[in-house]
Amino acid sequence: MAVPVRTKSRRRQQLEEAALYPLDWVEERSGLVGGVKYFLFRKVPGDISWAHTLGSATLTAFLVQAITGVILAMYYKPHPDTAYESIKYITNDVTLGWLVRGMHRWGASVFIILMFFHMARVFLYGAYKYPRELNWIVGALILILGMFEGFTGYLLPWDQTAYWATVVAVNLQGTGPFVGPFLVNVLNGGADIGVDTLSRFYAIHMLLLPAAIFALIGLHLWLVIRLGVTSPPWSNEAAGSGEPEGPRPDREGLVRGDRS
Amino acid sequence: MEPHGPDPQPHAPPPSLWPVGFAIGVAVLLTGVIIGWFVAAIGAAITLVFGWLWVRDVMGGGPAPHAEGERPPPSAQPVSEGELEAFPRSKFLEASTLGLGGLIGGLITVPVAWVAVAPTFLDQDQPDVDIGPLEEFPENEWRVVTFMEDPDQGEVTRRTVFVRYNGELEGQPSLTIISNRCAHLGCPVQPAGPIRDDESVTEETSNSVVTRIPANPAGGFACPCHGGAYSTEGNRTAGPPVRALDRYEFELRDGRVFLLASYSVGKVEGEGKDAVLTKYRLMSPGLHVDGLSQLLYPIGPRR
């Protein structure tokens, strides 16, 4: 490539040396810098559009939920006698508590809605087809777990809406043939909603499901990287026609000693 | 990473209509379970026929493409001189690692899963609750009675029943005790008529805190959530509920009324002390206890 030769001043060279030294150090011992470059500087079809950013938007919404959830967990007390009081405390007394709780409450809907938009994009573009069926399945699992997050999170404010909506929702599960009556007990932590129900929902909401969703998102992203991004159905590029994507040559050199 | 791209060979199975017919059959069968046995029989027939056709298609549809492509044996090395090691050390180590790992994983998983699930089924019996002396329930008048099933656990165990003293039947006092848990999806059913809150009485009984409120449910009982409505005997009169309201067993101890276990009711014939009904084991709201649909819930947790 005919790159015009630009000479850098000695001072600039020294600065770059100093800045890149720690990155080089990490790269030499872990290969992580190359991995991140491989992830970020992939080849994608030339005619993708904003519609292809819905997955990243969903991921962002989930990360907002995770972070605001951790902060809320610092103040929330999952016991029938204290849950509602602690929610009131977060909303009225904690500095900017109303904001973080509002982000978590409305962000939950944003997360679910974006998942559906993302799903619609994948469906309408035919991006679920071979060889990406497995990623559709992983995405569907994330959707199910996300809805279950909504179900378990709805009880936590422990007000009348939360309580009775959960009664109705649990009994709705109970009408499932054969296993329904057992599901009721497992969800409630007993025959009825009781003292154990709230902490049970809380543990599922903040430990079990987020961990599972994080793991599935990791798998989801790995499959996206491995299989590449699909071009739209009207594209002139055949889907997946690109060779496996390394870093673009002109991006090389972020770190010296780059592995190709 | 190895190169990849679209496989020139399409992997989709040949299109077939049999699964569609099979699915329709299952839907008709399930609809029949609710509507009647005749529709269910038609659905079962459709399911069986299309299921058989589908299975025949899958099993006997020419040589399956995967049949000959048996996995190659795992050891790709050519068998070398005189197979000295029939069961080599590496295989032993592999097997013991997998075996020990599985054993340890199982030893951890079993008790963890047990603790997560089993307590939700054990010790779920309802305690007997003292709701006050029989004189507090005048003949043919309704009382809304709220009480804590377990005062130690607090408000979360609060339950509500509607109680009417029907006078004596064959020398024994007769009480109608109806649970306020809607038989649709479990919302709290309300008396459809005046509730005289200002005459309510709260009493600390021998094992609970009980509030008795006089009420006149002239229009029966009604649910605010989805519009279920019931007669004063608890029979469904309108809306989505699938059976009558649940009831409680009771017992008199030294002239005081004790609530015992509750049970489910399909339909009540007659009224007051002459009411005739069949007791079923307590079921979740929304589940049929009689008719063909009860077959969908053959077993359930004890309570």
Structure characteristics:
heterodimer; A: 260 residues; mainly alpha; 9 helices; globular; B: 303 residues; alpha+beta; 5-stranded antiparallel β-sheet; 4-stranded antiparallel β-sheet
Task: Please characterize this protein's 3D structure.
The complex is a heterodimer of chains A (260) and B (303). Chain A has 260 residues and is mainly α. In chain A, 65% of the residues lie in helices and 0% in strands. Chain A has 9 helices and no strands. Chain A has helices at residues 10-30, 32-40, 54-73, 83-92, 97-124, 133-155, 160-174, 180-188, 195-227. The longest helix of chain A is centred in the last third of the chain and has 33 residues, at 195-227. The radius of gyration of chain A is 24 Å and the shape is globular. The model of chain A is unreliable at 250-254 and 256-260 (pLDDT under 50). With 303 residues, chain B is of the alpha+beta class. In chain B, α1 (18-35) runs antiparallel to α2. Chain B is flat, with a radius of gyration of 31 Å. Chain B starts with 17 loop residues before the first helix and ends in a 23-residue tail after the last strand. Residues 62-70 of chain B have low confidence and may be disordered. Chain A binds chain B through residues 80-81, 130-131, 164, 167-168, 170-172, 174-175, 177-178, 180-182, 184-186, 188-195, 197, 226-227, 238-241, 243-244, and chain B through 1, 3-7, 10-11, 117, 119-121, 124, 153-157, 185-188, 225, 283-287, 296-301, 303.
